[in-house]
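Subgroup meeting minutes
Present: P.N., E.W., G.H.
Scribe: E.W.

1. P.N. recapped why we're keeping a running log of single-chain structure predictions: easier to compare across weeks, and new members can see raw inputs and outputs side by side.
2. G.H. added today's entry (250 aa).
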Amino acid sequence: MDDFGGKLRQARERRGISLQQIAATTRIAAAALEALERNDISKLPGGIFSRAFVRAYAGEVGLDPDGTVEEFLARFDQERAPTAQSIAAAVPEAEAAFENRRRLAAIVLTLAAISIPVLVLGGYLLFRGRFARDTHAVAHPPAAVAAPLAVAAAPAVAAPEPTPQSLTLEVHPRSACWVSLTVDGRRLFARVMQPGEREAHPVEREAVLEIGDAGAFAFAINGREAKPLGSKGQVKTLKVTPATMGQYLP
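Output recorded in log:
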């Protein structure tokens, strides 16, 4: 049957289940399920999120979830999910990159811990030597040379303000909500989160959130609670980066 959405609707009607019942069970907005029955995939968020919608719907109406997802991908020319082999290959690479960044940060901190005391000691010795020479050369109090010495020592302790290069994202829905989270190109999870659950992850470049019910969803950035994303039943997709995180904070 070429009418993919019609096949889903017929299976639902054979079971005597309403869209509202499926929405309540799967925590997927009824508007998104209705669009799926109309073959209107423009109303779906796309990617693994859409496949998850189809899989959840199929399970509720008694259809084979895997077969229904394959039919959906073929019917609408959607991108297939990554294979277990591709995920297995990507994980070590991502872990290696993270480990390299961690080691580099440790080296930088070690160098800073060593160099700062050396600079302070060098500044102190320079100040003491110059003060001794000036005391023997002139009969004026040391205050006469205090200002030039302070100017000379200033570069040793001056440092630019640090620029934030990463953030910490925490998701904690207020009620049951379908959530998909991808951090720095790696999908971490896609599931229904229950109230009281919390997932916190560091983000170097960007985090992509796909939410099945904006009214039930809540999150925080660097410990600050973010603004509400929308009303109940709205499907939302957002991208959070260190440069754009301010638009989500009150």
